[in-house]
Amino acid sequence: MAEKLFTKAEKDQIVAAIKAAELETSGEIQVHLENHCKGEVLDRAADVFAMLKMHKTKLRNGVLFYLAVEDHKFAILGDGGINNVVPDNFWESIKEAMIKHFKKEQFAEGLITGIRMSGEALKEHFPYDGDTDENELSDEISFG
Fold first, then answer.
1. What element of type H or E holds 76?
2. What are the residue ranges of helices labelled H in 25-89?
3. How would you classify the pairing of strands 62-68 and 28-34?
């Protein structure tokens, strides 16, 4: 189910949104989909964050969008570097914007909205430095 949530064109649009966001920041954005979430969604997102080695970025500025498709659960998890500089309600405001799309079954558009919003904050706090920045993590959607 998770791998069939998006059409090829939608997957391409999501990856393009990640690449566009990362062009302006040293931050790293990843999307991971699974069918089911075992346990609490934030705990599972933290497990996936570690599995994808997102905590290994130089500035600790990775952001994970985790979706458990069949369980209708999702979480956004930012690493310590970004959590130290964004407002307390930052992730919640992005989730609310995404939910508006999800309720209309516009899952790709919801994700793209969240990716863009995260990218803006990453750009503000972790601007791209062409001399030292490298793409530390894959931009492709991963599946569990």
1. strand 73-78
2. 41-51, 80-83
3. parallel
Q: What is the dihedral of CA 120, 72, 102, 7, to 10 degrees?
A: 90
CA nearest to 61, candidates 43, 86, 78, 85: 78
Tokens of 123: 């750009």
pLDDT (tens digit per residue) in 98-124:
999 999 999 999 999 999 999 998 899
pTM higher than 0.90 for the full model? yes
Q: What is the CATH number of domain 2-143?
A: 3.10.310.50
**Extents of the domains making up the chain:** 2-143
Q: Which two tokens stand for residue 28?
A: 């790293």
Task: Using DSSP bridges, classify how beta strands 73-78 and 62-68 pair: parallel, antiparallel or unpaired.
Answer: antiparallel
Per this entry, what is the length of the chain? 144
